Amino acid sequence: MDIIWVADSVRCDLLRHRSEFFPLETGGILLGYSIVENDRYHWVVTSVTGPGKKARHSRYRFAPEDKFHIQEAKRHYYHTGGTEYYLGDWHTHPNGSCVTSILDRLTLYRNARRADHLQFRSLMLIIGGEIRTATYGAYVEKGRQNLLRKLVACQPLELRFFQ
Questions:
Q1: pLDDT value at position 150?
Q2: Beta strand 135-142 with 56-57: parallel, antiparallel or unpaired?
Q3: What pTM did the predictor assign?
Q4: Which of 76, 85, 70, 143 minimizes the C-alpha distance to 111?
Q5: What is residue 149's predicted lDDT score, i.e. its pLDDT?
Q6: Residue 7 class from Cβ within 10 Å (0-12 exposed, 13-18 middle, 19+ buried)?
Q7: Distance between CA atoms of residues 73 and 75, nearest Å
Q8: CB neighbours (10 Å) of residue 161?
Q9: What single DSSP character describes residue 98?
Q10: How many CA atoms lie less than 13 Å away from 86 in the CB half-sphere?
Q11: Which of 95, 90, 89 is nearest to 23 (CA)?
Q12: What confidence tens digit (pLDDT) does each residue in 90-142 have?
């Protein structure tokens, strides 16, 4: 089973972005690297972006500014000498749970099918809960799996924070 590692500085950034738009959904992209150790994937999130100025936020939906995210992913990749890259997406479920919706599962599946740099895998982090509390759900999709399986709820993975 995969393990998701998130830097404490990233958690602070996530909560700041969340507070800025609460009670509307918001999100961005996850940046970092992944390693395989003993047939176990370790996803290390070292940075995140916000939604972008042209993103659309509503109570139950978030539409990111794709052009901004592509530019930020490229900038981060070059800034780190190619050692860190796009891992996936993050978004919020204000006053809700951190469980994936059908749209979330389809987005995760679509992202994984394009992620050849991650062996066709993609990461999604969802932050739920009320404004004073946050719950986290981390999910990884393998894009080569059957699309019909996406209708079944994903199981959250182990999430660890580090300094």
A1: 56
A2: unpaired
A3: 0.91
A4: 143
A5: 59
A6: middle
A7: 5
A8: 14
A9: S
A10: 22
A11: 95
A12: 999 999 999 999 899 888 888 888 888 888 889 999 999 999 999 999 999 87
